[in-house]
Amino acid sequence: MKKLARILILVVALAMLLSACGTPAPTATTTAAATTAAAGGDTTTAAGGEATTAAASAELPRVTLKFVFGGPGYASMDEVWKNVTAVAGDRLNADFQITFYPWGEEYKQKLQLQISSGDDFDLNFDGDWLSYNTLVNQGAYLDIKDLAPQYMPEYYKYLEEQNMLKSTFVGDGMYCIPWTPLFNPRPWFSWWDANIDTPVEQDPALIKTIEDVDVYLHKVKEANPNTKYHIWESVGDYDTNTILQAKYDLAKWDFHYLTYDLKDPTAKLIPEEQTDMFKESAQFAKKWVDDGIFPRDAWTNKPAHDTLGTDLGHVFSGTAMYEYIVYEDRYKDPQRHYAQLYEDGLFVNKSPVNNLNAINKNAKNPERALMFLDLLWQDQDFYNAVLYGIEGVTYRRNDAGELLFPEGIDATTSNWMEWSSQWGFWRLGRMQPTAARSAESWALNDEFMKKPQNIVAPLAGFVPNTDSVKTEIAARDALYVEFGTLLDYGVVDDVDAALAEYIQKQKDAGLDKIIEAIQPQVDAFLAQ
């Protein structure tokens, strides 16, 4: 009861003082502007002009800010950004040209191509899970350490107060503007009774380890020997390895299959394939494939299987992060079940640079782009205009003050709200409660983030220079795709033999040289 009381207090407080935020909009393979249907056209310009501003500022010459995002186009995008121009008025005196590229490799490739070709767009979305590390190493982003305090003073001050500035620096330069929410991607075992023919009752509190997961999955298989559903599926960033990271206190780092012990203050780099975690993961993956629990083509047919959990309609169980357990109040669904694994194990929070915006090194208007970001932080009406669009057009409010989609529109048909790439603009204290992320869900997430096992990554914001080992890193990544994935997805004949071969191939390809190049940089970063 005491815990419930604390949560209810947090709900009230957050509803009044903080916020909830939008959820990632589904991505698609279509490109940007709804108003630009010409072949090959994926850019829209929301030209405000005198009709959308009170007056042109005598001090600020009129400019067009060009932003690049990942995701689909949206039907009301033109109207939304004309309104953004109007709300900003002479504080920015800017029109906006917005370009969306499809997610995946296409977004990364087109972003790199635009920058390398000298395109003068001003700002783009990125993240440490996307292209940020690569593009910083390539010198693609502008060092804003001198510009940011001058043209983005209020948000810069906030980042200072929150001890988030360090993560935006690489060496002596500041190369990004981060988001501010706190999440921890610790994996939970999740299952959905609606996605199986014969559900098997199970108390989630009794599932605490991968062995417990194994026992339950085999019970489900026994009760559903010929089911059309995949009993278990966990692909990509949330594979079986990730489940075991909390067991072994190993960092989820996402840097060319290297990790480090979270209890080691020196963060000595360890190749994942040489850990007990990797071996144990491979053993369970093979067992589940052999027993018909994990689809044998999970990697080779990855687009058909890629999921963070059970929401594609054909998967009974997988993994989920806490932010998506409370998303859309899923934890209230009696058919959905969640079990936290290795609760006492350490797991790193998402970093401030998990989602971010960066300024193109060729930017025509870097100062005005930073002013845009400062206004986004200072002005609630401006923030709402960018994040949610126009009330009555792209969203409506219910009696509880939550922002909902207009009648007849949902996340799959959104005309702007919950737009893809908005995450770089997420600001605690500015985000509004929505049906997807209510004040209650944020209170629950806040309570969860207080757990001492959810820790700040020692290397959060660290971007190593890889110039001296580009060849070796390319070889390492290629070997993982060719051999490591076979172990990760359980399609080898003998785990011990295949693992020994994979370890040796990585050593022969220059693994030691990679560690020798990166470890001193880790040491220097930790010494700052």
In short:
The chain contains 17 helices and 18 strands.
* Record field, number of beta strands: 18
**Which value, in Å, is the CA radius of gyration?**
24 Å
Specify the oligomeric state: single chain
Helix count from the secondary structure assignment: 17
For the report, how would you describe the main beta sheet?
6 strands, mixed
Separation of the first and last Cα atoms: 44 Å
Strand content: 5-15%
Structural class: alpha/beta
The share of residues in helices is: 25-40%
**Average pLDDT level:** 86
Poorly predicted runs: 1-57, 306-312
Query: For the largest beta sheet, what order do the strands appear in spatially?
Result: 1-3-2-4-15-7
Shape: globular
What can you see in these coordinates?
With 528 residues, this protein is α/β, with parallel strands linked by helices. The protein is 36% helix and 12% strand. The chain has helices at residues 2-17, 77-88, 105-116, 132-137, 147-151, 153-161, 210-223, 240-248, 276-290, 302-305, 322-325, 366-378, 380-387, 439-449, 470-488, 495-508, 511-527, and strands spanning 43-46, 63-70, 94-101, 123-126, 169-170, 173-174, 177-178, 188-192, 230-232, 258-259, 270-271, 315-320, 336-340, 347-348, 356-359, 396-397, 403-404, 454-455. A 6-stranded mixed β-sheet has the order 1-3-2-4-15-7. Strands 9-12-8-13 form a 4-stranded mixed β-sheet. Helix 1 packs across helix 14, helix 8 packs antiparallel against helix 9 (276-290) and helix 12 (366-378) crosses helix 13. The two termini are 44 Å apart.
